Amino acid sequence: MREMLRELLDLLRLDCLEPDLFRGQSQDLGWGRVYGGQVIGQALVAVTNTVPDRPIHSMHAYFLRPGDTRHPIDYRVERVRDGGTFSVRKVEAYQLGKPIFTMSASFQTPEEGFEHQFPMPEIPGPEGIQSELEKARAMADRIPPDRRENYTCDRPIEVRPIDPVDPFLKDRKPPFKHSWIRTVGAMPDDPTIHKCLLAYASDWGFLFTCLRPHGETFYSKDMQTASLDHAMWFHRDFRVDDWLLYSQDSPSASHGRGFNRGNIYTRDGKLAVSVCQEALIRKRADWA
Predict the structure, then answer these.
(1) pTM of the predicted model over 0.85
(2) Does 123 reside within a domain?
(3) 116 in a domain, yes or no?
(4) 10 CB contacts (<8 Å, ≥6 apart)?
(5) How many Cα atoms within 13 Å fall on the side-chain side of residue 84?
(6) Which residues have C-beta within 8 Å of that of residue 201, sequence separation ≥ 6?
(7) Residue 30 within a domain
(8) Distance separating alpha carbons of residues 232 and 86, to the nearest angstrom
(9) From CA 157, how far away is CA 180, in angstroms rounded?
(10) What is the pLDDT of residue 67?
(11) CATH code assigned at 98
């Protein structure tokens, strides 16, 4: 297992301070705030620790405040209900006594039922496609020095984007985005770990789907962007160390917010996870 993947797994291991109270460390990716996927992944670990016998099937979260990378994050779980087949949990994340994140999650005893799904888009496979990291390193001399290390360092999740935008051009594209993703090393067989890692990865670049029609990217200095909420539905089993197709679209942007949707498919075409997120996308009023 590569070192950066081992570090990510360590990041997702929480300390139990008391019953239903957990603490996670913060990761500094160089953005001045905690990456949203880290909080989603750690919160998922916290709630699943209180429901050992049922897998999670959905989660709905809101980002309340930016996380501070200099401090750990505490996760307080509330056991809302344990029914015959479903369990519901709430979790709030705190730093320095203030809530930064809240999430509700539902768990279900596995059962058989009706089956249907949208087919996987006809997208080229991951073979031969340049990874996001390779592209960043190829244009390293164009990346601002204060961001260069952040975008060219080794990563635990490999992303191979289809039809990527040039981040330095006002390149307008339709509000659709497709990427192949997987961990850079083999993972343990525990399905919970795979779900928590995919939750971590699902926020990576998701909000920029709604900026594609407007020619803005993560290098646009006059943009203020932030994830506002995040929801996931886990439909079928998957492995995050096998290639997954993350198919994204943005049906709407308005009032300084962009709405993004994602379907995550296994390599053999099974719809494994659905994701939705609304993001803040506004021009900075103080930019000159």
Answers:
(1) yes
(2) no
(3) no
(4) none
(5) 1
(6) 37, 157, 181, 240
(7) yes
(8) 17
(9) 10
(10) 96
(11) 3.10.129.10
Active-site residue numbers? Answer: 203, 227, 277
H or E segment at 89?
strand 86-95
Q: What pLDDT score does 288 carry? A: 42
- Three-state DSSP state, 180: strand
For residue 8, give Cα distances in angstroms to 38, 97, 150: 9, 25, 16
pLDDT at residue 263 in the model: 98
245 token code pair = 């197709």
62 Cβ partners below 8 Å, 6+ apart? 101, 102, 103, 228, 229
- Shared-domain flag, residues 150 and 280: yes
Domain range spanning residue 94?
1-111
- Please give the span between the terminal C-alpha atoms of the chain, in angstroms, as a whole number: 46
**pLDDT at residue 151, as a whole number:** 77
Asked whether residue 125 is domain-assigned, the answer is: no
Q: Are 178 and 288 part of one and the same domain?
A: yes
SS3 state of residue 127:
coil
Categorise residue 228: left if φ over 0, alpha if ψ from -120 to 50, beta otherwise: alpha
Residue whose structure tokens are 């992944």: 41
Assess whether 78 and 134 both reside in one domain. Answer: no
Helix (H, G, I), strand (E, B) or coil at 211: helix
Tokens of 121: 């888009």
pLDDT along the chain (288 residues), means of 10: 89 96 94 93 97 96 96 98 97 97 98 96 94 86 78 89 84 93 95 96 94 84 90 98 98 97 98 97 71
Asked which of 77, 111, 145 is the last residue of a domain, the reply is 111
Alpha carbon distance 269, 124 (integer Å): 13
Split into its structural domains, the chain has a count of: 2
Q: Do 169 and 101 sit in the same domain of this protein?
A: no
